[in-house]
Amino acid sequence: MEKRYFTIGMAGHIDHGKTSLTKAMTNVDTDRLKEEKERQISIELGFAPLYEDEEIQVSVIDVPGHERFIRQMIAGVAGIDLVVLVVAADEGVMPQTREHLDILGFLGIQSGIVAITKIDRVDEEFIELVKDDILGELTGTVFETSPVVMVDSLSKKGIEDVKSLIIDTLKTKEVREFRGAFRLPIDQVFTVKGQGTVVRGTVYEGSIEEGQALQVMPKGQEVRARQLQVHHQPAKSAFAGQRVAVNLSGVSREDVERGNVLVSSQHFIVTKTIDVAITVVEDLEHLVKQRTLIKCHIGTAEVMGRIVFFDRNELQSENGEVLCQLRLEEEIVTKRGDRFIIRRPSPQETIGGGWVIDPRGNKYRFGQGTIAELEKKKAGTPEERIEAALLEAKGLTLSELIKRTALEEQELLDNLQSKKFLLFNSKEYTLASLVDLIEEDIVDKLKSFHEKHPMRPGINKAELLQGIQKQVPKSLAEFVIENGLQKRMFNRKEQFVSLESFKPHVPKSWDKRTDNLLEELKGDGFKVRHLRDYLNSAGIPESLSAELVRFLEEQKYIVSLDEQYYWHFDNFREAVDTLRNHTGSEFEVGEAKEAVNLSRKYMIPFLERLDALGVTRRVENKRIWKK
């Protein structure tokens, strides 16, 4: 079973005990800023490791509860897997709590736990009354059927209960998709002395490795992940659901900001116009008119823009979704299905939230015709639904596609005839564009490997597969490699894969010295010195020796007699021919010494090498030539 990574959020009204509960569960004080200590409120997002075993790793985000810090709250909640709603027993559900509940619903949070805190401040006989009152306030929200735990962070009552409930709930959740392109919405940017720019966020999807080439979007700055940290510990990689800090090279602190997105692919869409489906809060105080100025919170970005309707000129509290468009003042990175919140900048108010139907919105006419087109987009054409399923899973069988797309089998088969889709392994479908991307990725990996190791025959296929498998299923990776071999893009020799055009070679800076080594070795005939002497004489450094010797053996320039003595291949072949011409079908050591005129120092290793190569076979004191 693959390890799964989760991030949970602590949400609720100011001073209801989120930070105290986090500290009680994790022993970490997430209020780290001086002003947070002084004012006893959370301003920035706070993070802490909660739990880890062989199956799961769980991190906690303590999001600010004060109205002024709603932006940080949205940035923290976006992308988490479970929310613990913290409600103080002595105050109950407050106006700010209700706004948080709206936001959680709009962001699609489905898993929740209600933690009623500060229970030691309420008489024991009133606890059930408090609980009933709070649950009544949560009717119709995502927390309506959530489990409830009574806790007190100071006395530690119920702390282990809420912690166990979080862990048990997460262990039943499906693992996030960590194959495919990496995406990390950035919620913190800072510098570390001597290290440079560091960004932090929750991995939405995909995975990241130390040293990986990335881009900061929407500007498209090319960077490299110099180092990774998960909970202040160095890490070689991080996966969807994990909190990670990435030390970037190639970009300054001034060029990165919260709301930017760190990605591993150029195929994420940068846009300023998105077609959306929104739901409005129940108690909207102010009318939303056509082209009303709004703030859009999407991922960790906060962007100003205007809302554009196609079937109305104003909006009040509505039942169901409203199809419309957001025209933003700045570019964002998004894709179909991403969740967002829209708020009025002044007077400040949450208007609603929803999801992205199409990140490539165009200008449309006002009227029902546009609404009908948006309805089609929302449902998605059969081809779009297939494409979306394959973008997420990378490879699916027909039966799996039927489940994911809810299409009838024949309709599915008809649409799969499109050149967009490709059948592999006689049973799985994928996107032709994805095959091209994987192929390009393999070419890049091979080019990089050949440049770094020009004397090696190629990458071990198992190692190559392991690198690709982090993005796509093994069966698809295998198919792309085999397809590349058939197209003569790649070459395979034994277990090694290379570019078809590549030939192993000595680096130019060392080829003259290598020629000198071979010339000296050949000139010494059968009576050679230790190979180390020849390497030193030619000026070959020890760091290069092992790989050069392996290359010369593989390319049949030299043959090892044992670990110390090597012959030039021409001399070895001469010795074999001489021995064969002066002996019968079988021979003893004495006959061999006489035929080749070698001392025992070289003769025994020579004969043992013939046995190892399968040229001869030893039977007691004799050797028999193999045909």
TrEMBL record:
Compartments where found: Cytoplasm
GO biological process: selenocysteine incorporation
An example Gene Ontology molecular-function term: translation elongation factor activity
InterPro entries in the record: Beta-barrel_SelB, EF-Tu_GTPase, EFTu-like_2, Elong_fac_SelB-wing-hlx_typ-2, P-loop_NTPase, SelB_WHD4, Small_GTP-bd, T_Tr_GTP-bd_dom
Keywords: Cytoplasm, Elongation factor, GTP-binding, Nucleotide-binding, Protein biosynthesis
GO cellular component: cytosol
Domain Tr-type G: from-to ranges: 3-174
PROSITE patterns for this protein: G_TR_2
Major site of localization recorded for this protein: cytoplasm
Pfam family for this entry, one: GTP_EFTU_D2
PANTHER family hit by this protein: ELONGATION FACTOR TU, MITOCHONDRIAL (PTHR43721:SF22), ELONGATION FACTOR TU-RELATED (PTHR43721)
Function: Translation factor necessary for the incorporation of selenocysteine into proteins. It probably replaces EF-Tu for the insertion of selenocysteine directed by the UGA codon. SelB binds GTP and GDP.
Name of this protein: Selenocysteine-specific elongation factor
Species annotation: Mesobacillus foraminis
